[in-house]
Design goal:
By secondary structure, the protein is an all-beta fold. It has a domain at about 40-80. Helices cover about 0% and strands about 20% of the residues. It has a 4-stranded antiparallel beta sheet, with no helix packed on it. Strand 2 (about 50-55) and strand 3 (about 65) form a beta hairpin.
Length: about 80
């Protein structure tokens, strides 16, 4: 199968190959309220302003999203899929 995802633009990094499964692991410390967090940025206007979106899994297994770092993994942000 052809690897169609290896053609990179500036600032793009590919994890793995297009013809095999890739798993990225973000480890965390074994401390309450300190989940692994993924931060993705959105740039939605012409000024180049970026908005961070933090994504993590809470202690019940729900995926949450918020524009600020969580201070409480179970109550900060919104459960993904329940946004309006």
């Amino acid at each position: 199968m052809a690897d169609t995802q290896s053609k990179l633009d500036a600032g793009v990094t590919v994890i793995g190959k297009g013809d095999e499964q890739a798993i990225a692991v973000i480890n965390t410390v074994a401390v309450e309220q300190k989940p692994s967090i993924l931060c993705l940025y959105s740039s939605t206007d012409t000024t180049g302003a970026k908005t961070p979106y933090y994504i993590w899994v809470d202690s019940t297994g729900d995926l949450r999203i918020h524009t600020a770092l969580p201070t409480n993994e179970d109550s900060d942000g919104t459960i993904v899929g329940t946004q309006s």
